[in-house]
């Protein structure tokens, strides 16, 4: 009896965290934890998704910004690496910051960026060119979600904005 009541508190806490019962905040699984769990479970997916890349610069931003590749084909549960290239075409150093979006929007919940240059300041000297990696992962649960049945292409789009001139 004493042992049962001692174990009841941590068991109840785990139950509440797992279910959200009693207003307890549920712990979300990180991308790394999901990858490890699906690797351990041996999750295998068959469907292949074309991830297409888009690059834009805001008005007045004198950079050339392009994806290094137009498309990568990946199965849910796999991670992939892509690159974008930015070049400062002005005669002054410029710092830029990028934002991104994923379309279709309903697929964005399954698209996880593991490493990305978005929201980080990128300072380029006049004429300087850099390659920037995007390491991403499509959650294997994408394949089992019936709302994703009509999705075979995902577009990852970045836009660079001028942050400051140095």
Structure in words:
Keywords: Membrane, Transmembrane, Transmembrane helix. This is Cytochrome c oxidase assembly protein COX11, mitochondrial. Exerts its effect at some terminal stage of cytochrome c oxidase synthesis, probably by being involved in the insertion of the copper B into subunit I. With 166 residues, this protein is of the alpha+beta class. The chain has helices spanning 2-19, 31-41, 141-144; strands spanning 49-57, 63-67, 71-74, 79-88, 94-103, 111-115, 122-124, 129-138, 153-165. Mean pLDDT is 81; it is low at 1-13 and 19-27.
Q: Spell out the helices and strands N to C.
A: HHEEEEEEEEHE
Instruction: Tell me the CATH architecture.
Output: Sandwich
Low-confidence sequence ranges: 1-13, 19-27
Sheet having the most strands: 5 strands, mixed
Overall tally of domains: 1
Overall 3D form = elongated
Strand content: 35-45%
Rounded mean pLDDT is 81
Number of helices: 3
Kindly report the name of the CATH homologous superfamily.
Answer: Ctag/Cox11
Please count the beta strands (DSSP E, at least 2 residues each): 9
Radius of gyration: 21 Å
What would you call the structural class?
A: alpha+beta
Distance between the termini: 70 Å
Could you estimate the helical fraction of the residues in percent? Answer: 10-25%
> What's the arrangement of strands in the largest beta sheet?
3-1-9-5-7
CATH topology: Ctag/Cox11 (Pfam 04442)
Overall CATH class? Mainly Beta
Quaternary assembly:
single chain
Subcellular location: Mitochondrion inner membrane
Pfam families: CtaG_Cox11
GO molecular function, one term: copper ion binding
InterPro entries: CtaG/Cox11_dom_sf (IPR023471), Cyt_c_oxidase_assmbl_CtaG (IPR007533)
């Amino acid at each position: 009896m004493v042992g049962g009541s001692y174990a009841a508190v941590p068991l109840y806490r785990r139950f509440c965290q797992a279910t959200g019962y009693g207003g307890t905040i549920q712990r979300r699984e990180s991308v790394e934890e999901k990858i490890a769990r699906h690797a351990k479970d041996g999750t295998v997916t068959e469907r292949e998704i074309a991830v297409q890349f888009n690059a834009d610069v805001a008005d007045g931003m004198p950079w050339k910004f392009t994806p290094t590749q137009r498309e990568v084909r990946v199965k849910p549960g796999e991670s992939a690496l892509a690159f974008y290239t930015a070049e400062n075409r002005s005669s002054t150093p410029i710092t830029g910051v990028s934002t991104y979006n994923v379309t279709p929007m309903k697929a964005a919940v399954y698209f996880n960026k593991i490493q990305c240059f978005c929201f980080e300041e990128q300072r380029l000297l006049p004429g300087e060119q850099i390659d920037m990696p995007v390491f991403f992962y499509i959650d294997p649960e994408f394949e089992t979600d019936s709302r994703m049945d009509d999705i075979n292409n995902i577009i990852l789009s970045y836009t660079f904005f001028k942050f400051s001139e140095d």
